[in-house]
Amino acid sequence: MKYLVQQLQKYQQQPLVVDEQLDLSAAAKENFSDRLLDLKAIHATGEISYEKGDQIKVDLLLVGIAVLPSARSAKAVDYPFKVQMNELYVQDETSLKAFDQTEQVFLIEKNQLDLDAAILENIITNLPMTVYAADESAEQPLSGGGWQLISEEDYVEPESHTAQQENQSLGDFFPDNSDNNKDR
Q1: Sign of the C-alpha dihedral, residues 33, 35, 40, 44?
Q2: CA–CA separation, 180 and 166 (whole Å)
Q3: pLDDT digit string, tens, across residues 61-113
Q4: CA torsion through residues 85, 88, 91, 92, sign
Q5: Do 69 and 34 touch, CB atoms closer than 8 A?
Q6: Between the N and C ends of the chain, which has fewer C-beta atoms within 10 Å?
Q7: pLDDT the model gives residue 20
Q8: First to last CA, the chain
Q9: Angle CA(9)–CA(58)–CA(117) in degrees, nearest 5?
Q10: Positive or negative CA dihedral for 72, 155, 162, 146?
Q11: Per residue in 150-173, pLDDT tens?
């Protein structure tokens, strides 16, 4: 979704109503391949309005499905999302300086409002860090050929006798030298 600022100036009285299907799959795979496998079509609805002081306000609801890797098996998991995007854009740096540093205000570059990157960032920041496939759960332990995932409660400390024997054999490499101990 790209708009020239001159196009948006005619929406000072009434906001531009947005109801579009977006395909940002290629950009998502290129920029966020470590977080997601795919991004299906996004339905964006809302308004873009040209406000006083040459500010552009964007209020969009983004609905879609992100395909994320399962934290257990890396299987593809469809994760439906609904993200509210509320951003304010200004046209020059002097207008940008008028806002608090705590406020999120963005600068319009090259006289064009390009919302694709902003939409993608809003979606990515609202995705969970871990998801699980339907046949997996966060509680379910895994096991395999000769190994098993266990919880901390089930962990049994190895006998210290074995560890002491292993450490004693290291003594040959570090002889006890009284000259070395004086330097410490």
Answers
A1: negative
A2: 23
A3: 999 999 999 887 888 889 999 999 998 888 877 776 777 666 678 878 888 88
A4: negative
A5: no
A6: C
A7: 93
A8: 67
A9: 105
A10: negative
A11: 777 777 776 655 666 666 666 667
Question: How far apart (Å, rounded) are the C-alpha atoms in residues 64 and 78?
Answer: 10
Q: Which of 18, 93, 91 is nearest to 56 (CA)?
A: 91
**DSSP-derived secondary structure letter, 10:** G
What are the structure tokens assigned to 136, written together? 């997996």
User: Is residue 171 classed as helix, strand or coil in its secondary structure?
Assistant: helix
The span from the CA of 26 to the CA of 123, in Å, is 14
d(CA 44, CA 60): 6
CA distance 89 to 72: 40
Mean pLDDT, all residues of the chain: 81
Torsion angle, alpha carbons of 115, 121, 126, 132, to 10 = 120
- Phi first, then psi, for residue 9 (nearest 5°) are -65, -25
SS (H, E, C) 34-73: CCCCEECCEEEEEEEEEECCCEEEEEEEEEEEEEEECCCC
Angle at 82 between CA 18 and CA 108, to 5 degrees: 50
| Radius of gyration in angstroms for the set of CA atoms belonging to the chain, rounded to a whole number | 28
Structure tokens at 12: 């000072």
